[in-house]
User: Fold these one by one.
Assistant:
Number 1:
Amino acid sequence: MRQFPFDVSTEEFVQDPYRFFEQVRRTSGPVHRTRSGDVVVLGYFEAMAVLRDPRFGHGAQTAQEQTNYGVPARTFLLTDPPGHTCQRARVRRAFTAREVLRLRVKINELTATLVHAAAQAGQADIVADVARPLSATVIADLIGVPEHLRDRFAQAAALLVRAMDPPQLIDAETRERIARARVSLARDINVALRHPSDTGLLRAMAHGSADPTARAETVATCAQLVAAGYETTVGLIANGMHALLQHRDQLAQLAATGPSEKAAAAAVEELLRYDPPIQLAPRSALVDADIAGTPVPRGTVVSVLLGAANRDPRAFPQPHLLRFDRQTRHLAFGLGAHYCLGAALARLETTAALRHLLTHSPRLVEPRILYSPARVARSVRSLHVRLNAS
């Protein structure tokens, strides 16, 4: 069971984990060892070092935590090189320049349609009316999911992201729903694999999937992409818009540019730093190692807190302020061998959402915003705004 130096079960932590991160960093520094012997990394430079270091990976924890991520442990999410490299390469073959260009056009067209409809209504929930349908359509299109299965895919993804949380925070009813979603998703992927769309990952990976082992790997990989790619992009769009609406000066500065695609894309990088949709990158020490002088024996559980690293004042002056003039590289998508494969698409979707939403002068309707109960994946639950129709 993963241990932390703060109580992650409280609503106060869900609403503002950064306050807790800062308290621990002030008393313990950038690396903290818990009473159980786990190591928690809160510093930017220390997090960078761990994420790049092949001495830290998933091998030592896979057996005991294989059910905690909503996908089987055999996918490349929880494997280390060289197996990880081979599996990841299979997926990357689907990300051709032509495919990314096709998705870029589709993302812009779909975002424009969704935001226009929301603006015509005058008021909208950015999460339900823009972020969720956009992310669901893109991830389904990327994989090559038939139209009649897409709603079920999105529903399963929303549940599977909870499986990333510490098991003690998931009640019995939610565990049962997660289990059913996992079975349903695997069944639907198997169906789609027999009749893949003309484009997408399933078509690219269908060759050789008659072999039971290859087929299982394909199903698990696609399930992982659904779980990881859907809810996290929703979180990025929702968290980013919420941050902008809280910093009216930065919102006005961005809106004054048009906003141009270049300015919106640059803003997305600071929004990723400020409130990333994934807060934790789990690792284990594969051999005896150390982190900034702290001994880390083989098998030690290491929790790299991405949200904390992105608020490290040594790397980001005034880290709790949103500033679009920052240059330092954030860690929201991880680093090294496990760098997020869907980072480019998440950036494209969020950039498109910002550009289209800001042309309608969004204003918050409700002052208090609630977050999803998930701890590892952080996302605003709903974000009601007023929008100008023109």
Number 2:
Amino acid sequence: MPDDTHDLVILGSGSTAFAAALRAQSYGTRVLMVEKGIPGGTCINWGCVPSKTLIHAALFYQEGKLGARLGLGECGGTVVLERLMARKDQVVGYLRRTKYLDILQDVPGLQLVKGTGRFLGPDRLEVGDREIRSERFLVAVGGDPRVPRIPGLESTPFLTSRGALLLKTIPQSLVIIGGGVIAVELGQMFQRLGARVTILEHGPRILGPVEPEPALAVRDFLRAEGMEIVCRTTICLAAQDGAGVRVEAERDGERVSFTAEKLLVATGTAPATNGIGLELAGVETDPRGFVTVDERMRTTAPGIWAAGDCTGGMMIATVGAREGIVAVDDMLNPGCGCSMDFLSAPMAIFTDPEVGMVGYTEEGAKAAGFDVAVNVMPVSAIPKAHVTSHTAGVIKMVADRATGRLLGVHLACHRGADIINEAALAIRFRATVEDLANALHVYPSMGEGLRLCAQGFSRDISRLSCCAE
């Protein structure tokens, strides 16, 4: 049917889908988005925005306790989770409306149809009783919380990251299976709001993919706040235990048991690709179900691109949005030579201290053939850290020994999510550590830590006066 033939059809309506749709609209392309749930995707509805709203509230609470220790009197009080959740819902609703729903109304040539899209072939999609045709498709269906196969889990009440953001009361105790980004972010939030939190991690440390120095700095800080972190555990069983839950695990050859009021399973993200007919369209996936793409976000099926969390790359909203833009540029302006630059894409983990990462890791730079020079500086070397009483953490820089080119920055630092953006610019424009060392920064500021760490490649920064060149 003519009215069901479109220039571009996008499966999904999250940040990746909308970035792609707006880029396509700039080419004068008619776009149809297909969405089975709430417009806005994970970031707005269940991920970045709601979680960081609550995490920041927990930070306020913790800062109040710090203020009391500094002489400001009692700044804490009873946590009213109902009010925190109402504030979270207000923020989510505002951003969903202004950044997604209003755009649907205001941008010409952009439509949305509700329902589950399923490929019938490389140029056909079924949505309910409609058959939609296009020469171009973008798969941007995102991901869902991954639930591992654990004996007894199917009959045990448990939370995922989505359910944890809908609780009506703070649990007295919480066991978290997993030690990745979601586990540590939500774990610290609940710990600060009054829960006793235990993290069970299979690997040798939490935040396994993160450089060891910042990851260990976060671990030590979480433990100092009272969180129990148990690594090298293999989960054997989950079960309901009265009004709570029990998790049994093997550690160092012994069976150990952990009980809590609530259980949170935070073991990563699975692609939301089941049941959308990728095999009928000739789109290949990896063994975990993530869509296989090249550097221009092309799938193995001509005319079909994929972007965002469903491809299994860097699962952050900004990267997904850029992937969507690269995909649209490639399909509508194929001579542009557009491709993804993951090296200069920054990522943050919203613990306290915040983790920021961009560029090569030390081992990654060595594997890429660089003769690597490294400097690791404690955050306590930054004067502003003492002003704010946030001295925990480290800054690690990786550079090419021959040229001084900055290859990677990895940090755990107060306001680290803001600081890492400067490092991303430096890496994108191939700056050297000398460039950073000679760049003036505001004093006192946490961002000055990048300059000090860069100076540390060639001098002893402990022998520098404040503001010294």
Number 3:
Amino acid sequence: MFSNPDSEERWGKLDRPLRRVLPRSLLGRSMLIVLIPLLVTQAIVLVLFYGTYLNVVSRRLSDGITGEISLVISMLERTPEADRREELLKDAAARTQLQFIFHPHATLRREGTNHVLGPIDDDFERALKQGLGRPFFVDWSAAPETVRVSIGLPDGMLDVLTPHKRLSIGPIWMFLAWAFSSSAFLFLIAGLFMRNQVRAIRRLAEAAELFGLGRDEGAIRPQGAREVRQAAIAFNRMQERVNRFVAQRTAVLAGVSHDLRTPLTRLRLSMAMLPTKGMIRAEDIQPDVHDMVADIEDMERLIGSYLSFARGEGAEKPVLTDIRALIEDVAVAARRAGGRVLSVEGKEGVEVPVRPDALKRALTNLADNARRHGGAMRFSLWEGERRIEITVEDDGGGIPADRRKTLLEIGSSGNNGGTGLGLTIVRDIIHAHGGTIRLLESPLGGLSVLLSLPK
């Protein structure tokens, strides 16, 4: 889909003022995300509660009192005698909990109501208009906790003192206080939890900043939610890989000067011992030339190994690769180089996403080691549910168990002629694939290298 530049520009104009109002910190925005739905929910609950339940109850209370007043007025109109009216009002007051005062020959001077309490006042006024059909005045401030209703009659005026509690369904402010106090309490709890989450993210950001400045503070302790913990664990792994990478490359640089010093010294001595006077015959200097060529070959091999290790395999992308076919290619190359491949065992058609050139290079290094130390080698492939295992075995002299761990470090070699980088390169390639490498004793009598790769 193509974006509309005009709509993006309009949204940008609306978004800029909004960004000025919104908090910039993650904690502030998270709390805003919590607060707005909380307030909206409480407002909806309040409107629905008062608009349905409270409103219905208020109308029923007003209709009930209006019906009682209307009944008393109807009885008064049917009883013209003054003494009987007084007894009637006393009896009605006892039965209805309302006070009735009749003023003969009095007139109603004011109609309506003198105070607006909200829906309660409106419901009571509506009920009186519909139920009485007479002029009336509602005085909400006549006495404490009492509402005076003055009703105009043909021969006088009737005052009805109504307790306020018979009209009110309870203080609405208590409900509001409970609603907002519970919201504030929940908001406070959410703030405490969010602060802990943001603290873990802030700690991760500070650790990344310090690590970028070269100040390694060590691994950070995973805290917070699962995603934040996963980010902290990933950062610790990244930090460990970067430190290992820097340490390996530093060791390589140190090894270059150390390992190249020996052949350079031999070359210098050979050049110094060459005859400088008289007739020089080729057969006389042939051994020296042969030694110098061998030293140059050693230097080329050393430099090639160090450059291969330093270059790494980071640029290659993983592709779905037939592992059995790749192992057979390595076995064919090992036979051409003079090695004796006993067998290539394993299931065919096992395809795994790997970096084929890097994995082939790792297997080639193992095959070269097997050829140099023994001569005979065997490859095997095993497929599991979530991983595959590649085993390269030789019939050489083997490696003692106490040296197998150090053999994977830079500078450790199984013989005096190696650079000590062969197995280290294999280890880095396998680790880059998320796998593991183990050195075991081979049934052939030599070393068995077990490579485990995820599928």
